[in-house]
Every structure is written in structure tokens, then in C-alpha cells.
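Support request, please re-run this one:
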Amino acid sequence: MPSYLELSTDQLDSQLSQLSKQYEQYRSDHLHLDMTRGKPCPEQLDLSQELLTILDSQSYKAEDGTDCRNYGVLPGLPEARRLFAELLDTAPENIFVLGNSSLNLMYDTLTRAMLFKLPDADKPWCQHEKVKFICPVPGYDRHFNATLDLGFELVTVPMTREGPDMDVVEALAASDPQIKGMWLVPLYSNPQGITCSDQTLRRLAAMKTAAPDFIIMYDNAYVVHHLDVDDPDRVPDIISLCEQAGNPNRVFEFSSFSKVTWAGAGVACIASSKENLAYVQKHLSMSTIGPDKINQLRHVRFLKNKAGVLELMAKHAKILKPKFDLIDRIMNRELHDKEICFWTEPRGGYFVSIDLLPGTAEQVVKLAADCGVALTPAGSTYPGGNDPDNANIRLAPSFPPLSELETAMEILCVCIQIAAIRKLRSQA
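Re-run finished. Output below.
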């Protein structure tokens, strides 16, 4: 079939009539399908069931004899720090292992910077008239919301195939001392699945910034979440790159086991320079005497080492990859060559990004919702939910079973076409 852009008005009307009949049939089925968030499915959670039994009444001591039932060891168990160091290609002394949520660690890091001056700062951020943060878009709504909640002004920069547009990032960071940092998901970005090139990361580590306390909030959430386990994407150690560039305190790196084991009961870490971690420990010690070391211990006993983590993640990929393949297959079958949308084919992570005809994203999400398919709200991949083109939507295929995902995608393709034809007809 020719591109919709090549069809006459009568041909578009005829196609819309056929699609509307399909749509009404779907709507009469009263479905309830959820693709709103990147949650692991039950089959993935079952992979870590051994966590419930791996410790017994005698298994409460760490390798150095620490009684994990008691207070203390604020930086985390040595074996837990060593495991994360393996995964992030850094040294254990660059890592603190804390609670179950990396998002919590990120929010706390920003809050500390507001209240207490960072090692390279002259004063806390709250004492500045304005704090700005660079946000690559489309991006992760929870990142945006954390900074908005603290009153930051968000400055968007476009993503490229190699990561954020570095010409734009460098110009902004070098020219405005109110820009105190930026968000970055370096590997399999949310939602596009883009992996930053080595060159991009080297430029970030070395670039000149007007603010001496500029930081990169480096959310390495998907460091082991590969779909192609035989040929995974990789990124260099950002901590080493910053140190080599003479900016050792520039990066705060975060990762967790939230989608490796259990989303609500994983273990998270913060990785940074020794000076940054000393700063974190100084202020963190005012709010806690130590993390949940029992949870750290059971994770280390279960996962063992990097090889053990990758073995588990290969099982995750076996569950997830067919879902991503199904999305691509249906999108190609229904929308190939129609020139009304473009979608990503990620090699890892949890999301697929779709760019629609400008002005149609909200309508597509509403059409889908009326058929019982819940999608992430349009605009969520932009700060404040404001996508200036009203064009991007994010798909989260991990949770639904394949049969439900197939139905949801077929409905979505109908909704995309209906919204696109309506848009083209309005422009005729």
C-alpha cells in the first residue's frame, strides 16, 4: 500500500472507514491491557525466588564476620560493594551500597546538594537565585519530576544516535553558571534505547562548565539489561573518564538490582569519587546508622558475582526479547512504509519509543484507552509532560503476557492510523 501521504482524500476516507470498524470491534471487547510502566512480569520475578530461602537462621554473617542483623557498615557490605564494582567496571572503594531504590538515592543526592555544598561548590544550591538542569529528551519522567519537585528549571537538549547532542550540551554548560548538572541514562536510554558512544562520554567528562560544581546524574539503570546477550552494548567507566579529564567529582553514578531480582526489594548503589562519597557519608550518617545488610547479603549469596548476574539476566532476556520482537513485527506489518510514525528497535532496556505525526500523540493514547489499552500518558517523556510536538509515546512491553501484548499492539496500530488520517484530513 502507498504511503498515507500519497493517498487522495477519498482514499484516506475509505481507509478511515475500514479502520473505524476495526476500532469499534476492539472497543466492544471491553479489554483491560496495561502497558504504562516498565514493570517486570511475574515470570521474571519468579527467577529470583531463591532469595526467600537462601539465608537460614545461621546465615547472617558477612565475609568479614559482620553480624548483618545489627547496626553499622553505612557504605555497605564489602562483598556487595565488590559485586557492584564488577558490574560498573570501577573499584569497590568508589561504591556505597545502600537501600532498595536508586531513584531514592538520586533524589537524596540532589537534596543534599541543595542543602549542603558539594565538594567543588562555594555554597549550597539553595543559596543560588536559580538552579537549572540539562535534560536530554525524550527522557525519563521520574528524573524530570525529581528535579522539578526541588524547584529546578529544566533545559532540554535533543538526543542523537550517540547520546545527547554534545554540541548543544557543551554550549549550554559552558555559558551558564546556573546550570548545575544534567541527567543521563548512558546505556539503553529510557525511552529510546540509545547507548552513548565513547566519544560522547569523554566529551561529557572533559567539557568546560561555567559552574565549578556541575554534576552528571548518571543513571546506569540498564547496565546488565541486554536483549542481545551475545553482543551487548557497553560503555566505559565514567568515573575513570572524569578522573582522567581532571574532573573527578563531576559524576554521581547510580544502579540497582530492582529489575535484576525484585523491583520492590532489590539493592541500589551510588558510585563516585572518594571525595564525593566522603561528602555523602558525612551527611547520610545523620539520617541512618546503616543499610539493610541482610538484603545485601542474600543478594550477594544469590547472585555471587558478575558471571552470576549475567547468567540470570540471560534468563530475563529470554522472557523479554520475544516481546520486543513482537512489537517490531506488528509495527512493521501494519505501519511499514505508511510514513506516519517511526519507532526504535532497542538492544536492551525496557522501553520502545514511537514518534508519531506531530499533534497526534494525545489522541492516540486516548483512542487506545477507550479500547482498554492503558499507555504511558503522552508527553511523559518531556519535562512537565509537555512534548512541544505532541508526537512521542513510550511503550513498556515487559509486564503483559505475549498474547495480551499482541492484542494491545494491534489496537495501537489501528489507533495510530486513525489519528494520522484525521490529522492529514484536517490539513487537506
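The CA atoms of residues 114 and 125 lie 4 Å apart. The first strand starts at residue 33 and ends at 35.
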